[in-house]
Amino acid sequence: MDENVMSENCFCQLASGSKGNALYVKGGDTAVLFDCGLSGRELERRMADRELDPTSLSAVVVSHEHTDHVSGAGIVCRRFGIPLFITEATFAGSTKKLGKTKAMDVEIMVCGTRFTVGSMEIHPFSISHDAADASGFRVTTGGSVLGVATDLGVAGHLVKEHLSGCDALVMESNHDPDLLYANPNYPWPLKQRVRSRVGHLSNEEAATLLDDLDRSRLKHLVLAHLSEENNTPDLALEAAYSVLNGSNTSITAAKQHLPTSVFSF
């Protein structure tokens, strides 16, 4: 177990990418899973790898209805008897992927309206992505703040407002445009979708967003949702280092098949 797991507030990106996403966040005696695009068995395996207890989970919060964010959420909620927080439009687009929704406690959240889960205050905010009602999150617990925005085509004023002044950030750095355009496996419409205002942030766009934020409290930055075909960890990290060079902020590129360390914030 990472030594930081003993902290009152900690987080771990259990999976990140187009094949599945899951972020574990703990504040005091409250633990929440943000998105679950993993099977129940795989989620438990990855949590065990970091000595995290799935039975301690208090809720699952879903950002949007795409399969890589929601496919395992229903299974986990039913298995551990915990509520699912989700916007109404996202729920409507997720019912088939969630499975037996009548056997679940579904709590409708609204972008722009804060809610609490135990000792954790969660403020969902709207982001630009090709989903019904995609959300980023500003999570406050024990006086510390974590910002989460992993699928956004453009970072406007609202995104910058909610990601500023955080102690930790989980932020998209999806692709390198040159690799994307040269990729023979991506048809042109898909390339256009990735680069659009409802697609995904490039490394350079993520660095520009980072440069626009208040980073005075920032201890940890996790670069998320890296494309396995159109990006590399080195390229994503290089762009982030160009902004954070000389700071005390730790930077990690999250992976699809391996959890990050457990970071305190």
TrEMBL record:
Q: Where is the Metallo-beta-lactamase domain?
A: 19-225
What highest taxon heads this organism's lineage?
Bacteria
Pfam families, per database record: Lactamase_B_2
Q: Which SUPFAM superfamilies match?
A: Metallo-hydrolase/oxidoreductase (SSF56281)
InterPro entries xref list? Metallo-B-lactamas, RibonucZ/Hydroxyglut_hydro, WalJ/YycJ-like
Q: Which PANTHER family match?
A: EXODEOXYRIBONUCLEASE WALJ (PTHR47619:SF1), METALLO-HYDROLASE YYCJ-RELATED (PTHR47619)
In Swiss-Prot or TrEMBL terms, this protein is called MBL fold metallo-hydrolase
Organism of this sequence: Desulfoluna limicola
